[in-house]
Amino acid sequence: MLKYTHVTIDGATLRTPKGQSVLDVALEYGICIPHLCHLPNHTDMGACRLCIVEHVKNGRSTVTTSCTLEAKEGMVIRSNTDRIRALRMNIAELLVAEAPNSKAVQDVAVRCGVKQVRYPFRNKDCVLCGRCVRVCRELWGANALGFIGRGMKRRVDFPFGVRPDSCKVCNSCIDVCPMTITPCAGPMLPGREYLCGQCESQLSMNATVPDTCVLCDLGKGFQCARQR
Amino acid sequence: MTELKRLEDLDALRERLGTERKRTLRTLTVCGGTACQASRSRPVAEALKRELAEQGLGDVATVRVTGCQGFCEQGPIVAVEPEGVFYCHVGERDAAEIVGRTVRNGEVLEPLLYRDPVSGEKVRTLDHIPFFRWQERRILGQNHLLDPCSIRESIASGGYAAWQRVVSGFTPEEVIAEVKAAGLRGRGGAGFPTGRKWESCRNAPGDVKYVICNADEGDPGAYMDRSILEGNPHLVLEGMLIGAWAVGARAGYIYVRHEYPLAVEHARTAVGQARELGLLGRNLLGSGFDFDVEIVRGGGSFVCGESTALMASIEGRVGEPSPKDVHTVEQGLWNRPSNLNNVETWANVPLIINEGAARYASLGTDHSKGTKIFALTGHVKNTGLVEVPFGTTLRTIIHEIGGGASNGVGVKAVQTGGPSGGCIPARLFDLPVDYETLSEAGSMVGSGGMVVMDEGTCMVDVSRYFLEFLREESCGKCVPCRLGIDRMLEIVTDMVNGNGRPGQIELLEELGDTVSATSLCGLGKTAANPVLSALRYFRDEFVAHIEEKRCPAGVCRALIRYAIDADRCTGCGVCLTACPSEAITGSRKKPHTIDPGKCTRCGICRSECTFDAVVVKPREDARAQIHPRDDRRSHAAHA
Known about the structure:
- The structure holds 2 protein chains of 2 kinds.
- Chain A is of the alpha+beta class.
- Chain A has 2 domains: 1-124 and 182-228, Ubiquitin-like (UB roll), CATH 3.10.20.740; 131-176, no CATH class.
- Chain A is 21% helix and 15% strand.
- Chain A has 5 helices and 7 strands, in the order ββαβββαααββα.
- In chain A, the strands form 2 sheets. In chain A, strands 2-1-5-3-4 form a 5-stranded mixed sheet, with helices on both faces.
- Chain A is globular, with a radius of gyration of 18 Å.
- Chain B is 40% helix and 14% strand.
- In chain B, the strands form 6 sheets. A 5-stranded mixed sheet of chain B has the order 12-11-15-13-14.
- Chain B contains 26 helices and 19 strands.
- The chains are: A alpha+beta, B alpha/beta.
- Chains A and B meet through strand 4 and helix 2 of A and helix 18, helix 19 and helix 20 of B.
């Protein structure tokens, strides 16, 4: 028997099957919460922290990621306060400074309102969102990819750097990687990265309804859960 | 030793051991903590034993190697009980005299006594030393009473009495109520009420539960957990037994750092002895309660001190934190309700049961009860472990116990709580130390590290040090912690190197706020504290680094130059020979000069000069760089 639970997100009380995460509920009902590392039907690890929301409990609000927060009866969530938007913008700015060459990351940054990057660009190939690791482990059970190292030295690799037999070169990891789509203006050379800002026009129509999904094209690069 | 089957067996054993103890007239306690062992206390203990045997005093006195007694500065320490005569800096050659004169005749050896650096007088006994006089040594004070490797000594000095009381007349609910009434709060850093944690763990559904002892202490300069586990492992075990009884757990883990070999060894020995004696295992003391403890060694990561990462590490997974939307008291180790407490918290539990909640709660402030051990390090005269009641002012700890600044210059600030804490300036030293006051001041009690910094410390450089530490120790899982700390470090390094730009202070504050609000675990959430508190109290230093390209404390190499004061220089040539880059020139008996082009600003000449003739000056050419290089400019959107 399917059991339902009710959560209030941004003032709207929503009915949802039990066991869903707050992010799932919000996306289901067309509330836009930017996200990057979330992969539908996979465990969430809360790595990118873009999907942060305010969880109001006993009159106090705590900032937490909506992907790892299970929807419980009577929960009150605010997904689009000034504070959340400011924090989200800072995180997106950190991400885009790390990987300006990724269309997905650029799009997310635009969606979070990043217009200027205050840090030197780095042009990395990986933002460690862990989508490839999870798709390999959870969808195929291959466990061919994993995180290696700690902190700034953390990277995704095969065990001991050698492709194991369990990897069947299915390319799922490449499909879900947010770094594999060539940016619209073509790859930028190291040291010559910039934000073109052309995608901002896409957001002009939702300026009045900032927390509503307008089915923009910005989620294509990382398979936004609404794009399915 | 035979296994103890009933409560009365333990009583009988304690009585027998107590009378055995009384037979010897004197005991020589030699501190065997890691610090004292490093200053060769083991050979001292061996020499004392040899001398006792040679002089035929074997049954008059015994030698006891104990855990850390706290005054690590003065090691190796030997105390003669019961008089309490306190000898410091004892060497092997002093053994004959200590045995021959103090043990045989009760004479006091003047040269070995502690000399009070303030009054210059010799102090005879431990209680009269200023370092100890202001302390309330309830946990650490037990260390010198027993040999940590002997469960007999522990029992003889009252070990496992609290456990006995619990088994004989406490329901689990009563134990929880007692701990709650005592107002015990987690000593590991966050200060969560222990009683409430136990209650939620007890009430969590599930019949398999765990208690875990967190001995993965990693803050720079902090070592109180190590000293407790090394010096009195049975106290921790007793606390865990009581906790397990209260929450209904039948298995426990001690997660101890691999870098603490002595603590691992002592904990292992203690668990082995307790098992042998029937204090761990099945049907303990005939109560029908089963409990056993396993020791797990940490894998060498700072973040493994975080509860979810620690449990992942015990399970054999990578020690990375996971989201805490479901608390570990409900779903922790192997998704079972798990109760994690710090070593010091566990050590406080037997005390509460023994003396009662009311008496325990009589010490401390309104919301912080009991005593807390701090590791006092840095620029103070007396470094070591300090146990004081909550509510003691920072001034008492630093100036009375610590003896004030060691270098003759004033104390500038104290860094409490390690990399998660913050810096508190000297003008706030009258603040009482408790959880709330310190967190209002932008710092925290944390696990209890206290690093004192004198006027010669640059706060920007200190911020850089902590950020560097945290960047190395961040697991790298979430974006704000991995990238945010790195970017903060980048900004602060710019400042230290004289490349600071206007607006970076505001950026640092904004970034710090983001990192602390959005990070996944406690490491990230508190990572910005050192920088934010430094910015709060020492903002002018950051401004000076950026706008004037000047380091007020004269520390940051890129912003200073060394010069020789011609009036003070006697031309002795010491600096000239000491300089590794041959930057100093001059003839004998004439004032020398430093060539700024060759000088690497290592500071060796300054420390070598006995006339204080080498002075630090702001660097003029650093000021010429006030306009930043173009390639580091921020990028506008429509470039």
